[in-house]
Amino acid sequence: MSEVLKIFKIGGGIIDDLAQLSEFLTELARVPGPKVLVHGGGKGASQMLQDLGIEPRMVQGRRITDAATLDIVTMFYAGKTNKQVVALLQQRGVNALGLSGADGNVIRAAKRPVKDIDYGFVGDLDARSVNAALLVQLLGAGLTPVLCAITHDGQGQLLNTNADTIASSVAVALAHSYEVELHFCFEKNGVLTDVNDDSSVIPRITPGLYQELKASGAIAAGMVPKLDNAFAALEAGVEKVVIENALRINDPVKTVLCRS
Ligand SMILES: Nc1ncnc2c1ncn2[C@@H]1O[C@H](COP(=O)(O)OP(=O)(O)O)[C@@H](O)[C@H]1O
Ligand SMILES: CC(=O)N[C@@H](CCC(=O)OP(=O)(O)O)C(=O)O
């Protein structure tokens, strides 16, 4: 039986609220064993773009990333956000190491090809894009890698990449070396039957129930690509996927996805 590795993905509003981020990281520091943190920050990036006079544009959950937008999201995700998270983890006794995909060639993505829509400098990736050997070495040295949404193409070009996709791809890539648990942490208590009622957490979701909930409209918006990704990761060897409140990761209330 291989060792359990917990991969946490944090996004939504939590990452941009210093008090909530600090609370999440305090809980994360209490989680024993090897772990990886992947963070987004899309909400805060949109706010920063607006403050700088650039109108954010999202299509099907992905940001249209022109050169000016890429500069700003790189500064925001790989700079301010990543380093703030690392500093707060260090304060909590966790030896965190902040990385973009270019650092140590940890994630090499491919620029999304232009079809109907030109997404600009957006990277696509899968588990083969992840330098699992490096992550295994870092984890073996007792470090906690903190990955942001910036990747590279190996030709000197930085790319903006969806953070849920990074988390799933890293989880699948590491499933050969560890028993991987993938935790998607956000501001709600899990996947809910009523998105406005935090007490309506669905404890267990199979692929069949997921299709029913999607068809009825109970699961919608950003939750759909998240769960599509998550079920694909389960099929590809990840042992367990959990959807949970970022401020209650050590509490039992959460949604667990099951293969059957
Ligand atoms: N059934 C559901 N349960 C929980 N959240 C849901 C559900 N259906 C839709 N959502 C929405 O999905 C959002 C999470 O997706 P997203 O915004 O992409 O998250 P993040 O920014 O954390 O990656 C929630 O904030 C919620 O508004
Ligand atoms: C290409 C693309 O869409 N990249 C995302 C990366 C950040 C992210 O995924 O943030 P959350 O997890 O907080 O949504 C973006 O710029 O919004």
UniProtKB/TrEMBL annotation:
Gene3D superfamilies: Acetylglutamate kinase-like. InterPro entries: AceGlu_kinase-like_sf (IPR036393), AcgluKinase_fam (IPR004662), ArgB (IPR037528), Asp/Glu/Uridylate_kinase (IPR001048). Keywords: Amino-acid biosynthesis, Arginine biosynthesis, ATP-binding, Cytoplasm, Kinase, Nucleotide-binding, Transferase. This is Acetylglutamate kinase. GO terms for biological process: L-arginine biosynthetic process via ornithine. It is an enzyme of class 2 (transferase). GO terms for molecular function: acetylglutamate kinase activity; ATP binding. Its EC number is 2.7.2.8. It comes from the Bacteria. It catalyses: N-acetyl-L-glutamate + ATP = N-acetyl-L-glutamyl 5-phosphate + ADP. It comes from Hymenobacter persicinus. Substrate binds at residues 41-42, 63, 160. Pfam families: AA_kinase.
